[in-house]
Design brief:
The structure is a single chain. The chain is mostly helical and 447 residues long. Among the domains are: 120-195 and 233-360 and 428-447, Up-down Bundle (Fumarase C, Chain A, domain 2), CATH 1.20.200.10; 362-413. The chain contains 19 helices and four strands. The chain has helices at residues 20-23, 26-46, 52-64, 73-79, 83-94, 97-100, 109-145, 165-190, 209-220, 234-260, 286-308, 317-347, 352-360, 368-376, 381-398, 402-409, 415-418, 421-424, 428-443, and strands at 150-155, 158-164, 268-269, 349-350. The strands form two sheets. The chain has a two-stranded antiparallel sheet with strand order 1-2. A hairpin with a 2-residue loop joins strand 1 and strand 2 (158-164). The protein is elongated and about 100 Å long.
Length: 447
């Protein structure tokens, strides 16, 4: 097996990444760092920190030169960071020593790496958002179509009371909708430029480092943090946390769908693949299982990343290296989950016959709560609950439907009306429609 499923040709279709995978390659990282070096030089040239003609030469070269990642392996191993080797290779490729001497002027490796990382994270969030919108489109359609489709709600894996399939879909979609709503603020607060120099003091960045940082932020269309965040990894943690919560929300969808497709329940059909190598009758819940696996793995990586946010002094190599190991896996996990969940949400369908059978099965005891409240209208509720518990025990022992026992012992209660799932769904249909309306509005550009 490959070192990472996200780098595997064999598992590429099982763990789909779309275009996000391109952003987490050596070549993409080098390209982003060169873009930052070029934009920085241009901003410095405009302020007279470096010669204007050198600034233009550096900015132009940053768009043109190609640097082989393999050539940076040795200096990266020696220095513990890739930028010294990158800067040296860039100067060499420029073939203009008079201009090249101003490459990487006054900054530190972390400024370049962190800013370049933000450029790639910005693209990743945009791509993940597109896939998230596709997921929500499918879920909104399902919720609206099946707002009134009754099914058994389950707590602790057992039948609880009736709900609607649309409301269950809404419970999957609402956290995703919240995550979509969070994106504008996340981008504003977390996609930040880093420009603070060797120890965060900006001592070699000219007479107005704050102005230079603002210029660089504007040139790269990133936010200006107005300070050094070398050891404050909050911007990275916010983005990683958003990605983790996305995979967890999609993992919840996967967990429920996998359970609802299992033998003996089969209340949902998936569409698509999932064949067994030896059992022709099976359609394995592959994508739901993938979503659960990604949620578990991403949550674990996030725990490690939280620990890595504790930096010592003004830069901490071990903490920073740990971030490099975890952050790509977290973002790629979110990207893979969002990619896979779109087709899943589009292909999901309820088996309404199976759902109806579940509501009438188990001797109708799913309606026990409604019966207890009906009896509570005539007597104290503790007494009503005790009566219903006794009736449920008798139903189990005698295998007689609860409705028949109600007709025998409480003929004044209309058992047919009371045991109607439509009567007991409460706010479930409204919840389904509320989610569908909210999702439709946001996907159309509303709030």
């Amino acid at each position: 097996m490959a070192a990472s499923v996200f780098d595997s040709t064999l598992y590429a279709r099982l763990f789909p990444l779309g275009e996000v995978g391109r952003l987490f390659s050596d070549s993409a990282e080098i390209r982003a760092m060169l873009l930052v070096e070029g934009a920085l030089a241009r901003a410095q040239g405009a302020r007279g920190i470096i010669p204007a003609d050198s600034a233009e030469a550096i900015a132009r070269a940053a768009m043109e030169v190609q640097i082989d990642p393999a050539k940076l392996a040795a200096p990266t191993g020696e220095n513990g960071v890739c930028v010294p080797g990158l800067a040296a290779a860039f100067r060499h490729e420029m073939q203009a020593p008079d201009h090249a001497q101003y490459v990487h002027w006054g900054v530190t490796s972390q400024d370049i790496i962190d800013t370049a990382q933000m450029l790639r994270l910005r693209q990743a969030l945009a791509l993940i958002e597109t896939d998230l919108r596709a997921v929500l489109t499918g879920l909104a359609r399902l919720a609206r179509t099946h707002a009134e489709t009754p099914m058994a709600a389950r707590t602790y894996g057992q039948h609880a009371t009736p709900t609607s399939f649309g409301a269950v879909v809404a419970s999957w979609g609402d956290p995703l909708l919240d995550l979509l709503r969070e994106l504008p603020a996340l981008r504003e607060t977390s996609l930040l430029v880093s420009l603070a120099g060797a120890a965060g003091t900006a001592s070699e960045l000219g007479p107005d480092p704050a102005g230079l940082r603002a210029d660089l932020a504007a040139a790269l269309n990133l936010g200006d943090p107005r300070r050094s965040w070398h050891t404050d990894r909050t911007p990275v943690l916010r983005i990683a946390d958003w990605c983790t919560r996305l995979t967890l929300a999609l993992g919840k969808l996967g967990e429920d769908v996998a359970a609802l497709t299992q033998t003996g329940i089969s209340e949902i059909t998936l569409g698509g693949a999932g064949a067994s190598s030896t059992m022709p009758q099976k359609q394995n819940p592959v994508v739901p299982s993938l979503l659960v696996a990604l949620a578990r793995a991403t949550a674990g990586q996030m725990a490690v990343l939280n620990g890595a946010a504790l930096h010592r002094y003004q830069r901490d190599g071990a903490a920073w290296f740990t971030e490099w190991m975890c952050l790509p896996q977290i973002v790629l996990g979110a990207a893979s989950a969002a990619q896979a969940a779109g087709p899943l949400s589009a292909g999901l369908a309820p088996d309404t016959g199976r759902m109806a059978a579940a509501l009438t099965g188990e001797l109708g005891m799913i309606h026990a709560e409604a019966l207890s409240f009906a009896l509570a209208a005539q007597r104290p509720r503790p007494e009503a609950q005790a009566l219903v518990k006794a009736l449920c025990r008798e139903a189990r022992d005698s295998r007689m439907p609860l409705a028949d026992l109600v007709r025998r012992d409480h003929p004044d209660i209309d058992a047919a009306a009371l045991f109607s799932p439509a009567r007991q769904m409460g706010e479930a249909p409204a919840e389904a429609r509320r989610f569908a309306d909210s999702a439709t509005a946001i996907l159309a550009g509303g709030t």
